[in-house]
Amino acid sequence: MGRRSIRAGLVGTMVTLFVMAFWATPAAAGAGCHSEPTQGRGKTVEMVNQCFTPSVLRTEAGAEVTFVNRDAVTHNVSANGWGRFEDMGRGDAFTATFDRAGVYPFACTYHPGMTGAVVVGNGAGAGSGDLVTVDSEEPAQQTGPVSVARPQAGSGLGWLGFGAAGFALGAGLALLVRRSLSRDGLRS
What we know:
The chain is α/β, with parallel strands linked by helices. The protein folds into two domains: 3-25 and 155-183; 39-137, Cupredoxins -  blue copper proteins (Immunoglobulin-like). The protein is 26% helix and 30% strand. It has helices spanning 3-23, 157-183, and strands at residues 39-41, 44-48, 51-53, 56-59, 63-69, 75-79, 83-88, 93-98, 102-107, 115-120, 132-137. The strands form two sheets. The chain has a six-stranded mixed sheet, with no helix packed on it. β9 (102-107) and β10 form a beta hairpin. The chain is rod-shaped, with a radius of gyration of 24 Å. The chain starts with a helix and ends in a 5-residue tail after the last helix.
C-alpha cells in the first residue's frame, strides 16, 4: 500500500472521528444521572430516564421505601446485602424497610453510573444491608409524576448512526482519493 493510500485512510479516519465527536449524542446515566445529584424526602425512588429519582432519598428509621421502574428499559437495584438483583421491567417494584440510621448506597448493574443512596435518620451508622428487609411487589401503582426536572437524554442510537455516517463519508473520501491517484498514474 502506497503513501497516498495511507493518507487517504487517515483522512477517512479523521472525518469519522470529527463526526462522532461533534454530532453524536451523550451517553445516558451517571451519578445524579444527567445533571447534579437529586435530593428528596419521602418513601419512593423511581427509575426514570435511566436515573434513580431522587438519587439521594432521606427518610427516617423504620421507613418503608418503594423502588419502582417507570422506564421502558430493564433495571435492577444492586446493594450490599439488600436490593432486587433480578430484572425489573416497567412497572415492577419492591419495598425495602430501613430499620437503622445510616447511608445505604445502591446502583443499577446494567447502567454504569446509575447510582443512588438512601440516607436514614442523620446518616450516622454502618448502613449494613443485614438490617434491611425486602418485599417484592408487582406491578407498582402509579404514584404521580416525578417532581424532579431533568434534561432529556439522547438516544444511544445517535452514536451508532453518526458513527456509521462518519465511516461511510471517510470511506467515500478514501475511494475518491484512490481513484484520483489511479487516473493520474501516481498510485504505487
